[in-house]
Amino acid sequence: IAKAKCSMRHAEVVIARRAIEEGRGLVVVVNKMDLLRGKKDPKLSEKVITAVREEIQTVLPQ
Prior knowledge:
Strand content: 5-15%
Low-confidence stretches: none
Number of domains: 1
Order of helices and strands: EHEH
């Protein structure tokens, strides 16, 4: 579970890598998205999702 305002923490990366190495499925949940609703950018949710995908590709390359 990753927070919408933060990048993945070391422990989250370690757990994700272990799951991938063992051939297990991985579900990424972005928590606290409701805290971003007050922002003026209507596409902020899409930007967060894109940023999370890019970060996953960076820290967990396949």
